[in-house]
Specification:
3 domains; five-stranded parallel beta sheet; binds iron/sulfur cluster; oxidoreductase activity; alpha/beta; 321 residues; NiFe_Hase_small_N_sf; 13% strand; 12 helices; Rossmann fold; Hydrogenase_assoc-protein; 32% helix
Length: 321
Amino acid sequence: MLAIIPGANCAGCDYSLLDLGEKAVEVLMAVDIAYWPTAADLKLEDLEKLPDGSVDIVLFEGAVNNDETEEMAKLARRKAKNLVAFGACACFGGIPGLANVASRDGVLQKAYVKTLSTLNPNGVLPSKLTRLGDEELTIPEFLDTVKSLNQVVNVDYYLPGCPPPLKLVADALAAALSGKLPPKGTVFGSMKSVCDECKRVREGKRIMEIKRYHQFIPDPDRCLLEQGIICMGPATRGGCDAVCPTMNVPCRGCMGPTPESQDQGARMLSALSSVVGLEVEAGLGDEEVRKIIEQIKDPLGTFYRYSLPRSILRRVWGARE
Ligand code: SF4
Ligand code: SF4
């Protein structure tokens, strides 16, 4: 039996399953679907009624960012024989986890009051309970800190990516269907970095300037980082066959940190400092190196785009907006 349970997600991981094509049909023929709101007309009560631990594979997609997704994560754990964090959001907090740069109040103020396109003169914010005459309306309550799935419940397997690469999804489903799942705690992905899978040529070149992707057309054969574009390949787990750098797009880091480093941003800073460090060898002083580093736009959002909740920082403490 298979269930796919959404948390704070964009449903992109969900749709990636449909990209499996004929393999998706094979999987659907081989399993009973216990719950999958995107594709099957089953209600949450149907899942709740099943005995605990009776669903062979539960894919939980998305981060945990409100009291409803927190309950869904706990329900997923109760019903699952094997619980899989499916996609970067479930594995590391993902894009929704960037809300951790602000407090709950700061996020709500920005989204509902201070955004330039918002007209909200009374500063009305979403509230868990709203009374309209005799009616009561409730909505989920946003948490102060966005969490990855394993910060709420125990997770058996991790299938990273945004969305996860099809080959890894197919491998994981094949292992589950054949009853040959790897040891619990396994991350479906490579033990190496994206750079190890990338065919671009690295020449040990110095970074003279950090450029943004829209500013020039990079050489299609040379390492993007050595051309001055921030490419997260050195700090990111492989398993995606370096699909983005192959298509001339820098790696954004959606496979999460490499196995030997738990903090993706710190690993990237270290990789970057060794490339810029070559400048020091070239006789540049601290001030010149600082000027190069200051060209990085939004360092936190670049280095922790997918992994802020699972990083050592976890959130920006004391941030208000
Ligand atoms: S990992 Fe990416 S595709 Fe999947 S839910 Fe999160 S943002 Fe969407
Ligand atoms: S930094 Fe990016 S472009 Fe360079 S080798 Fe690594 S993955 Fe490829």
